Amino acid sequence: xxxxVESGGGLVQAGGSLRLSCAASGSIFSINAMGWYRQAPxxxxxxxxxxxxxxxxxxxxxxxxxxxxxxxxxxxxxxxxMNSLKPEDTAVxxxxxxxxxxxxxxxxxxxxxxVTVSS
Length: 119
Prior knowledge:
By secondary structure, the chain is mostly beta strands. It is built from no helices and eleven strands. The chain has strands at residues 2-7, 10-13, 18-26, 30-39, 46-51, 57-59, 67-72, 77-82, 91-100, 105-109, 113-118. The strands form two sheets. Strands 2, 4, 5, 6, 9, 10 and 11 form a seven-stranded mixed β-sheet that branches. Strands 1-3-8-7 form a four-stranded antiparallel β-sheet, with no helix packed on it. A hairpin with a 5-residue loop joins strand 5 (46-51) and strand 6 (57-59). The protein starts with a strand and ends with a strand.
């Protein structure tokens, strides 16, 4: 089992910045991709950013140029730097990882952290 613990959410004014952190712990063999999803009220959960263990990165178009994902593989930690925040970025942000146990891959999710951007 792998546990993901997020931190760093909060309330910020439009144009402000936040940095989310997520640390994986537990019986870790190998973590492949790590990333962030978000879900706004009444909307489907969407991928915000993801990063492979090799460093390949994907962003949803709406955050390109404003958000930056990074990770420290040695610490099984992933970060999401968010700049120029907009009210439409308001959502619960979930950390996720794909864990390989030597035979199978499993996806794990954090409990979510609220990000609220006021106009």
